[in-house]
């Protein structure tokens, strides 16, 4: 069977999709690919003759687009990462699972507090605390506004999308309390790291 020309109608949990057989068999080792053996009589079908897969129909949209284009494209503020990861795991799509985990890791606001010659320092700042902020919301700006007396007025970009701001070391505890009250949770103690989901 020529999978590149074979049009496949799929019913995933009640949601209908149409694609080429070659798309769902893009990764031969995957469970999804193995659902479509050469012997088409083994394919599970619904009453209308569509191949039936008893999984989440909405999530399959993103699975299918990934198979077509090789990209994970999700709507703004997508909130079903756990579900999508579970579906990718069920279909045995290892590369897709990796991409989803990457997206999950950056869908957070992270604040890393270091002192002296900490992780993100190029030189020693014995009397300063560096706040390394990553995420779409500029927590650094809010902190500078709240701790006006402690901000050194120096800031630099480090890595992609990260901002480093310098505060008086005496503000370390106060900054931690500020973040916790804003809903951040401490994820690491060394370096001191706080994060909040977007």
Automatic annotation (TrEMBL):
Ranges of residues in domain Potassium channel tetramerisation-type BTB: 8-96
Q: Which residues form a coiled coil?
A: none
Which range is the signal sequence, renumbered to this chain? Answer: none
Q: Per its UniProt record, what Pfam families does this chain match?
A: BTB_2
Query: InterPro entries in the record, alphabetically?
Result: SKP1/BTB/POZ_sf (IPR011333), T1-type_BTB (IPR003131)
Example GO biological process: protein homooligomerization
**Cross-referenced Gene3D superfamilies, in alphabetical order?**
Potassium Channel Kv1.1, Chain A (3.30.710.10)
Q: What is this protein called?
A: BTB/POZ domain-containing protein KCTD6
Question: Source species, please?
Answer: Stichopus japonicus (Sea cucumber)
